[in-house]
TrEMBL record:
It is an enzyme of class 5 (isomerase). CDD domains: PRAI. It comes from the Bacteria. Belongs to the TrpF family. It catalyses: N-(5-phospho-beta-D-ribosyl)anthranilate = 1-(2-carboxyphenylamino)-1-deoxy-D-ribulose 5-phosphate. The gene is trpF. GO terms for molecular function: phosphoribosylanthranilate isomerase activity. Keywords: Amino-acid biosynthesis, Aromatic amino acid biosynthesis, Isomerase, Tryptophan biosynthesis. Its EC number is 5.3.1.24. Pathway: Amino-acid biosynthesis; L-tryptophan biosynthesis; L-tryptophan from chorismate: step 3/5. The keyword Flavoprotein does not apply. This is N-(5'-phosphoribosyl)anthranilate isomerase. Signal peptide: none annotated.
Length: 208
């Protein structure tokens, strides 16, 4: 079944709503963003994440020692890298890595396989910040491509309205959403639940 990651959570009630609705991953953003958390805040929120839900820390071009310190304090399960981190940098981390790549064209898929990652996150081109910009990329670029051992997380412009189409087009291992479950820039519990429900439903429909 397709996995769902709800990213950029900043409140206890949103974490609990996402977990109860069936989210597989919760994302805490430590990079510069309107959703950025302090290490202390993330540690507090981490206590509300149930064991079956994996905690992901999102970083952009951060120092290795800073990532490791935050990962330990917040009891993270995965490290998500949205910057210009090299394959060698990724291999030095003590936790499984989710490496994000901005997809403009087919050429952007070249070189991705040189990274040894738990998941490869394919995202739309960056806006003001890396990720969380609410725009899709051309899914036909990756449609019907048998690559990366199917360890692909799809991100960028996803919402409850297009999630079933995304699953049909890309057949990813998982979906990553942030702005698509917000209203006026704030996480919306109803949208979080609707997205997860649509994702799980879309996955079932795709397998029929």
């Amino acid at each position: 079944m397709v996995q769902v990651k709800i990213c950029g959570l900043m409140k206890q009630e949103d974490i609990q709503a996402a977990s109860e609705a069936g989210a597989d991953f919760i994302g805490f953003v430590f990079a510069k963003s309107k959703r950025q958390l302090t290490k202390e805040h993330a540690c507090e929120l981490a206590s509300f994440v149930p064991p079956q839900v994996k905690k992901v820390g999102v970083f952009v071009n951060e120092k290795l020692e800073v990532i490791e310190e935050i990962a330990e304090k917040a009891d993270l399960d995965y490290i998500q890298l949205h910057g210009d981190e090299s394959p060698d940098f990724c291999s030095q981390l003590s936790l499984p890595v989710i490496k994000a790549f901005q997809i403009h064209s087919l050429a952007d898929l070249e070189g991705i396989s040189t990274y040894d990652c738990a998941y490869y996150l394919l995202d739309s081109p960056a806006g003001k910040y890396r990720g969380g910009n609410g725009e899709t990329f051309d899914w036909s670029i990756v449609k019907d491509r048998d690559f990366l051992d199917k360890k692909v997380l799809l991100a960028g412009g996803l919402s409850a309205e297009n999630v079933e189409e995304a699953i049909r087009e890309v057949n990813p291992a998982g979906l990553d959403v942030s702005s698509g479950v917000e209203t006026n820039g704030v996480k919306d519990v109803a949208k979080i639940k609707a997205f997860i429900q649509a994702a799980k439903k879309g996955d079932k429909n795709d397998k029929v």
